[in-house]
Design goal:
The complex is a heterotetramer. Chain B is mainly α. Helices cover 60% and strands 4% of the residues of chain B. Chain B has one domain. In chain B, the strands form two sheets. Chain B has a three-stranded mixed β-sheet, with no helix packed on it. Chain B has a two-stranded antiparallel ribbon with strand order 2-3. In chain C, helix 1 packs antiparallel against helix 2 and helix 2 packs antiparallel against helix 3. Classes of the chains: A mainly alpha, B mainly alpha, C mainly alpha, D mainly alpha. Chains in contact: A-C, A-D, B-D, C-D. At the B-D interface, helix 4 and helix 5 of B face helix 2 and helix 3 of D.
Chain lengths: 715, 393, 100, 172
């Protein structure tokens, strides 16, 4: 018998209510809408965080087997059917276990801080209520994704966050690049979603249900072996709905299909191309959706299905190698990018690869640990970069920054914390989570050594490009003239419009105008408190969380009931040895970047060698710098394969099949019908009475026919 | 009053309907000139002038003289009229008017049967169980007289009058039906004698002295809450095309409306029809809302007077009311007439009917008068047919 | 002795009269009246058969037929009035928009 | 005996009136003939002990529907005979012939059906069959299927009222 949770639904419902409120805020509050929304939107998310905490504190400890199910809709039970068709029964149910609660806390906690930050960041935008409407909807959908009690609800959340991501990437849709980036993200995700949907259907046909857990013990995960924790790692085998064991081939197919979905959402090779472009959205969006939460849903899903993956070793290997490859490719590209947000985006791709690597080698706990720490410090980095961009009046190119340390010292400080955390400087949270992954990679049954080596290389690159970013942005000398920065207003309305439309915005703009008028003082300024406070909080956790979790072991113990324990080989090195090695690698990376980018000369040109003096090799597309700057030509290859060939195929379908065969058939039919019509039209006199006469004739025939049949029957 | 079953070897009870028929027609024909005289005198008094005073004492024979004059007038008919229908119209009017009177409950006669029992027989031409519906049906046919007269005369004033008449009659018949339904709802029957019976109990079932049983306070004008009787009274005036609703024959606009082209006896028939209609609808008013033949108080001097006298008194009260209105109110404009009918009385009637339905739901499980077995009813048995409220006390 | 069959035959005759009327008249109002006659003939047989079987259900059908007839007439006459306004005629042979 | 005479008189009258309705050229006379038919049919209903239906027949058909017909005829001034002159065509002839065939077919089919009484049915006329009470109890009995059609009919009537107003009004 599973325990039930009464509170869990409110984690989802609070942001949803916020979404409804924000959507109609303009109607309700008229001119005060922006102000009210800026309190309501973060408020509901933080409240939801409080509820999640309450569930962890009060309900989870009393739960049988660390698991509760809850209803999604107030006043109903978890057994309330949403879809009940034939054998398919989908309930409005939630699964509340450590994994979903951890994610719920990340989503609402980090999300809440980002909301607070966004109230400052988006204060000037006349469409701020729309922004927060999407934001709250995103939180709702993300929570449905992580808390949903069956695959279909997860899919609802899955698609919902995709939609919100699309809406938010192209939030400033007046600029066509933003709209295109949104489309790209959406379309690429479609491929992954197809995989997920197919996997889900296969699960249903094999297991006969989509619920993870149910009272009868026939939930997918229960059938796959979860819930009998004791002997789990020795005798795992999934049984189908018929009671027979499921073959490994079927399980592998399911897992690979699900992983295709995860590839799309979590930007893994080959479906990663959308994530860098997604940086077109406002920076809080990048922080919340494309770094901290949504992109990790792939890892969450794989972890959720870890009971299935554990029994499909080939699928796990695929996960691991794809993750590794993605981590490597992302890191190499990150080395040379110039846009501050793009560096962070590729860093995200790379770190996501790390997480999949962890899943692939069977250490799901480490994967989730990295998800958590990454959520914190990547949010910090993104928000910090947002603060930089905000200070630079919208400038994102690092080549045009520099020397900001003195001007925005506090931002610089928190950014350093984030950088050290992601680089893996010993003692900060990134160090522990990354080392955990590397260590389990080393001790994994396959090519442990290879995985470890590549992982270390990636860690080195990570440290390098992060330090490069810091130096280019804050170090050396300023690459711009303070007081003459062009105001790159990111909005659907230009400045003038915004003032014309909304008096409220005028007040908020006042500050900026003082700068624009250029009375001799600096344009670059520290961000408002609403933006800085979340940064401090995140910085604190970036420092403290990893060590706390590692040394108390709380994290591992928390997640233990939800993931299977894998057998690991004895690692060739001890854990403390691993600490030393990875610590050294991180410091080496940081040092190399410091040596290379300390001097302003390199930064000034922006390229290592001036264009005119390039050799043939240097102009070639395979030259490492060009190759990396253009993302391994990935987009070009995709364009070539899918757009050109697909286009030719589409034209073939259009000209031959559609215009020729289908149209021809239909027009031919129409022509035949028309011919007969012309023939029969002569019968139609257009006089009602004639028709009525014909009707009577018909009735007469029928009556006589019936009469005849009766009289025959009478004989 | 109790009658023996046989008088001189004639079995009386089966003859009662024929007596009623003869009595009704005879009375109506006899009273008609009197009615006209009453109307003229009353209006004259109200308008502070002399009124008829030449023929007979106090002009009493004036109407008779008018009838004689009409008899001897030349009977003209328009050349382009549709003659058959033109002649049919006044007949229809008179026929419908008279036949509606067939179900009026004049009085209940009690016979002392030879075997010692008592039998009550209603003094009614046809005491049918759809009496109310019958009256509605017949009065809905009255419109044909007006319409056909208007159309057949081939005269635009007549046609206008006919159109107005048909629209007006249809419109007000609805409100009239609703008002009657209120009564039917409370009495649980469509049979007029039983509706009268239903009014013979204690007022609202209250434990009052015997003297109030079947008194003016237990009649349906009060019992259904006054609104229905008001609606019915207004509708009945409109139904009979009398002032202030006499638009079909508005003399200042349409000459004489639908009977412009009628003269002599045909005109007299229209005139007769109109007055008979007035008598009949007043009689229905008396039966439905004013207790029919019941005396206003259940005490000796009143109860000694036979029921039909009370009935006729009440009808005459209605006629006086007609006259009073005619002397008081100006004619309504056509749109005001329609406005009153459709937008005031009809919704009011509907709402009131609904309210009464709710009330009667709470009152008691419907104890219909149709349930009462058809056998001689004694005074004690009659008490049992009272609303349950009494029985429960 | 009058049996149910008598009523049914009468109903058939009235119905046929209505049918023929619909077919031969050109005035849509009269056609309408013929339709009403057909309805009445049907009602008559309903009631006769209901009486034959001692059931009140036949009369139920008639009540609904009456209500439907009333609705039909009100709308139908509305249409006729509207057509007359538009075309100044109601001759069914001149209302031939459907005729090519 | 009275019933037999009444039936034959009413039957012949109704047939004559209905034929008169079809034959006459004047719409007003057609309408009057139809009213006559309706009244005869109403009287026949009373013979069939359907008093309530008879009254309703008179109220609704004769009192409302036919008045509406007359009203429209007068409103459009179609009363004058010959306003719609019949053109010579084969239609009436064919229609009449076919109608007669139809009648014969109906009568033949009627002769083939045996009206058998179902078990438990009461062939005799019992008292509350056609009274307001008998009809009302049946109509509103939840065990009978009439309640829903009754409500549906009320909506139909409402729709018809709105429809008629929309149709006939010059400007809505």
């Amino acid at each position: 018998m599973l325990s039930t949770s009464n509170l869990a639904m409110w984690i989802i419902l609070l942001p949803f209510l916020g979404f409804l409120h924000n959507a109609f805020a303009g109607l309700i509050w008229k001119k005060n809408a922006k102000k009210v929304v800026s309190y309501v939107a973060p408020g509901v998310v933080l409240l939801a965080f409080g509820v999640a905490l309450m569930v962890v504190m009060t309900e989870l400890p009393n739960a049988h087997d660390h698991r509760l199910i809850g209803a999604l809709i107030p006043g109903t039970s978890a057994a309330t059917p949403w879809i009940n068709l034939g054998g398919l029964r989908i309930n409005f149910e939630l699964l509340v276990d450590p994994l979903s609660l951890l994610m719920a806390m990340i989503v609402t906690g980090v999300g809440g801080l980002i909301h607070v930050y966004a109230t400052g960041y988006m204060a000037e935008d006349p469409e701020q209520p729309r922004f927060f409407t999407y934001f709250n909807l995103f939180i709702t959908m993300m929570l449905i994704l992580v808390l949903g009690g069956n695959f279909l609800l997860m899919f609802v959340g899955w698609e919902g966050v995709g939609t919100c991501s699309y809406l938010l990437i192209s939030f400033w849709y007046k600029q066509s690049e933003n709209a295109k980036a949104g489309n790209k993200a959406f379309i690429v995700n479609r491929v992954g979603d197809l995989g997920f949907a197919l996997g889900m259907m296969l699960i249903w046909s094999v297991f006969g249900t989509l619920s993870y857990f149910n009272d009868k013990g026939t939930g997918v995960l229960q059938l796959a072996g979860a819930g009998h924790a004791e002997g789990a790692h020795t005798a795992l085998h999934a049984i189908s709905v018929m009671g027979t064991p499921v073959s490994v081939a079927v399980l592998t197919t399911i897992c690979v299909l699900l992983f295709v979905g995860a590839m799309g959402k979590s930007a893994q090779i080959p479906l990663w191309v959308w994530l860098p472009d997604a940086m077109a959205g406002p920076t809080p969006v990048s922080a919340l959706i494309h770094a901290a939460t949504m992109v990790t849903s792939g890892i969450v899903m794989v972890t959720r299905c870890s009971w299935l993956f554990s029994q499909a070793p080939q699928a796990m290997q695929l996960v691991g190698y794809i993750g590794l490859a993605t981590a490597f490719v992302g890191a190499t590209i990150g080395l040379v990018q110039n846009d501050i947000k793009r560096v962070l985006a590729f860093s995200t791709v790379s770190q996501l690869g790390y997480m999949f690597l962890a899943c692939g080698v069977g250490n799901y706990t480490a994967g989730m640990f990295h998800v958590t720490t990454h959520a914190i410090f990547k949010a910090l980095l993104f928000l910090g970069s947002g603060a930089v961009i905000h200070s630079m009046l919208g400038e994102q190119d690092m080549r045009k920054m520099g020397g900001l340390r003195k001007k925005i010292f506090k931002t610089w400080l928190v950014m350093w914390v984030g950088t050290y955390a992601i680089a893996g400087v010993p003692g900060l949270s990134g160090f522990f989570s990354k080392d955990e992954i590397l260590h389990s990679a080393l001790s994994s049954p396959g090519n442990g050594m290879f995985l470890y080596a590549v992982g270390l290389a990636i860690a080195f690159m990570t440290a390098f490009y992060m330090n490069r970013l810091m130096h280019k942005t804050f170090g050396v000398t300023a690459q711009f003239v303070d007081g003459e920065l062009p105001h790159q207003h990111h909005s659907n309305f230009d400045d003038h419009d915004a003032h014309g439309h909304d008096d409220h915005a005028h007040g908020e703009h006042h500050d900026d105008h003082a700068h624009e008028d250029g009375h001799g003082h600096s344009q670059v300024h520290e961000s408002p408190a609403s933006m800085m406070i979340p940064l401090y909080v995140l910085a604190f956790f970036s420092v403290a969380f990893g060590a706390w979790a590692k040394f108390t072991g709380a994290f591992e113990k928390f997640l233990e009931p939800v993931v299977p324990q894998m057998t690991h080989l004895e690692a060739p090195i001890t854990e403390s040895m691993g600490y030393i090695i990875s610590g050294c690698v991180a410091i080496a990376g940081l040092t190399l970047a410091y040596i290379l980018y300390r001097k302003p000369k390199v930064v000034e040109t922006g390229q290592l060698i001036p264009a005119e003096t390039k050799t043939r090799w240097e102009k070639s597309p395979l030259h490492p710098y060009t190759f990396l700057l253009n993302k391994w030509w990935w987009d070009v290859v995709y364009n070539g394969i899918f757009l050109k060939i697909g286009g030719i195929f589409a034209i073939l379908l259009w000209k031959v099949v559609d215009a020729g065969i289908i149209n021809g058939t239909i027009e031919g039919l129409g022509w035949i019908v028309g011919g007969f019509s012309r023939l029969f039209r002569k019968l139609q006199t257009g006089y009602v009475r004639n028709y009525a006469l014909a009707m009577l004739f018909g009735v007469l025939v029928i009556v006589l026919g019936v009469l005849g049949s009766w009289s025959i029957a009478a004989k | 009053m109790i009658f023996p079953e046989f008088v001189g070897g004639v079995h009386l009870p089966p003859l009662v309907p024929y007596i009623a028929l003869a009595g009704t027609i005879g009375f109506i024909l006899m009273i008609l000139p009197g009615l006209i005289w009453i109307e003229r005198v009353v209006i004259a008094l109200m308008q502070d002038r002399s009124g008829p005073n030449r023929v007979g004492p106090r002009g009493l024979l004036q109407s008779t003289a008018d009838v004689v004059k009409l008899f001897f007038k030349e009977d003209m008919s328009p050349k382009s009229a549709d003659i058959k229908i033109y002649y049919l119209a006044p007949f229809l009017t008179v026929l419908c008017a008279f036949s509606a009177g067939g179900v009026l409950p004049l009085q209940t006669l009690t016979f002392h049967l030879a075997n010692g029992d008592f039998q009550t027989v209603p003094l009614t031409v046809g005491d049918v169980n759809i009496g109310v519906l019958y009256i509605l049906a017949v009065s809905s046919l009255q419109v044909y007289g007006v319409v056909l007269a208007g159309w057949a005369s081939n005269n635009k004033y007549s046609l206008l009058g006919g159109l107005r008449g048909s629209a007006q009659l249809i419109s007000y018949e609805l409100s009239m039906g609703l008002a009657i339904l209120c009564v039917v709802l409370f009495s649980g029957t469509c049979q007029l004698n039983k509706i009268v019976d239903a009014q013979s109990g204690a007022p609202f079932g209250l434990p009052l002295p015997e003297i109030f049983n079947g008194s003016i306070f237990s009649w349906f004008w009060l019992g259904t809450g006054i609104i229905p009787v008001v609606i019915y009274t207004i509708a009945m005036i409109a139904e009979t095309n009398r002032a202030p609703f006499d638009l079909p024959e508005a003399e200042s606009e349409l000459i004489a409306g639908f009977h412009t082209e009628y003269s002599s006896m045909k005109f007299a028939m229209f005139f007769t029809g109109e007055y008979v209609s007035m008598l009949v609808v007043s009689g229905l008013n008396a039966a439905l809302f004013w207790g029919g033949p019941l005396p206003p108080l259940n005490i000796i001097p009143f109860t000694l007077i036979p029921g039909f006298v009370w009935f006729i008194t009440k009808v005459m009260g209605g006629i006086f009311f007609y006259t009073w209105l005619r002397a008081t109110y100006p004619r309504l404009r056509y749109d005001a007439l329609m406005h009153l009918g459709w937008k005031r009385m009809l919704p009011l009637g509907l709402v009131w009917l609904f309210l009464l339905a709710v009330v009667s739901l709470g009152r008691s499980p419907a104890k219909s008068a149709d349930n009462v077995p058809e056998k001689p009813v004694t005074a004690t048995q009659q008490v049992q047919t009272l609303p349950n409220a009494v029985a429960h006390r | 002795m009058i049996t149910t069959s008598h009523f049914l035959v009468l109903s058939a005759i009235l119905f046929t009269t209505g049918v023929v009327g619909v077919l031969v008249k050109r005035n849509p109002i009269v056609i309408f009246m013929c339709v009403e006659l057909m309805l009445n003939a049907a009602n008559l047989s309903f009631i006769a058969l209901g009486r034959h079987f001692g059931q009140v259900n036949g009369q139920m059908y008639v009540i609904f037929a009456l209500a439907v007839a009333a609705a039909e007439v009100s709308v139908g006459l509305g249409i006729i009035v509207a057509i007359f306004r538009a075309k100044e005629t109601i001759n069914v042979d001149e209302i031939n928009l459907m005729k090519s | 005996m009275v019933t037999v005479i009444a039936f034959w008189v009413l039957a012949i009258l109704s047939v004559v009136a209905s034929i008169a309705m079809v034959v006459t050229k004047n719409p007003v006379r057609s309408a009057l003939a139809l009213v006559g038919t309706f009244l005869c049919v109403a009287a026949l209903y009373i013979l069939l002990s359907a008093q309530f239906i008879a009254a309703v027949q008179v109220i609704v058909y004769a009192g409302a529907i036919m008045v509406l017909f007359l009203f429209v005829i007068m409103l459009l001034n179609l009363g004058s005979p010959g306003a719609l002159r019949e053109r010579g065509s084969l239609q009436p002839v064919i229609a009449t012939g076919m109608g007669i065939c139809f009648l014969i077919a109906l009568l033949l089919s009627g002769s083939l059906i045996k009206l058998r009484l179902p078990a438990g049915a009461r062939p005799e006329v019992y008292e509350p069959l056609g009274t307001v009470r008998g009809i009302g109890i049946n109509l509103f009995d939840p065990k009978q299927p009439w309640l829903f059609p009754f409500e549906a009919t009320s909506i139909l009537l409402l729709v018809a009222v709105v429809g008629a107003i929309i149709m006939a009004k010059r400007k809505v």
